[in-house]
């Protein structure tokens, strides 16, 4: 059995700081989102994905993959969003078991109203506390980790 590669003091500080920041930042931004727009983080994720999708529609399977959710979990959430008039669900023409989620006019109005307030919250609680150099370094670091996590390992 190999020895654990323990974190050194600098790595430990960075890791613990990241974890604490992630929890505090997500909690604050999500509180702001709910207060300002009445949307939850998953609501916002679904609506923003649909607003950016071609013809404002997306397969449920693809949307679930994007959100890192199971199709079942997303399907239940979409049902709740349907009851609020934010999205509709259509059968897939090429897959009888599949569903396409479609942004409604009410959903479009909701995301258009929420987005400016949401980005202001992100800016106020995150970017306003960083230098441009820190933002660039963070962008490089996050992309390196995301690339490592999403690139298939050939072993």
Keywords:
155 residues, Arc Repressor Mutant, subunit A, three-stranded antiparallel beta sheet, 8% strand, globular
SSE inventory with pairings:
Elements: H1 9-37, H2 41-52, E1 57-59, H3 60-67, H4 71-83, E2 87-91, E3 99-103, H5 105-125, H6 132-150
Antiparallel strand pairs: 1-3, 2-3
Helix pairs in contact: 1-5, 2-5, 3-4
Give the structure's gist in a few sentences:
With 155 residues, the protein is mainly alpha-helical. The protein contains six helices and three strands, in the order ααβααββαα.
Written account of the structure:
The protein has helices spanning 9-37, 41-52, 60-67, 71-83, 105-125, 132-150; strands spanning 57-59, 87-91, 99-103. It is mainly alpha-helical. It has 6 helices and 3 strands. Strand 2 and strand 3 form a beta hairpin. A 3-stranded antiparallel β-sheet has the order 1-3-2. It has a domain at 28-123: Winged helix-like DNA-binding domain superfamily/Winged helix DNA-binding domain (Arc Repressor Mutant, subunit A). The chain is globular.
């Amino acid at each position: 059995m190999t020895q654990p590669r323990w974190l050194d003091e600098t790595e430990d500080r960075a890791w613990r700081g990241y974890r604490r920041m992630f929890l505090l930042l997500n909690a604050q931004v999500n509180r702001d989102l709910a207060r300002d727009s009445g949307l939850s983080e998953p609501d916002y994720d679904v609506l923003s994905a649909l607003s950016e999708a071609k013809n404002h529609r997306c397969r449920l399977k693809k949307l679930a993959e994007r959100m890192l959710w199971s199709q079942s979990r997303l399907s239940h959430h979409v049902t709740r969003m349907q009851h609020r008039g934010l999205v509709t669900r259509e059968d897939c023409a090429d897959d009888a078991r599949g569903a396409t989620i479609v942004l409604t006019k009410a959903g479009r109005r909701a995301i258009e109203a929420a987005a400016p307030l949401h980005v202001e919250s992100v800016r106020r609680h995150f970017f306003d506390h960083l230098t441009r150099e820190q933002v660039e370094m963070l962008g490089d670091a996050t992309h390196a980790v995301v690339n490592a996590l999403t690139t298939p390992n050939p072993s």
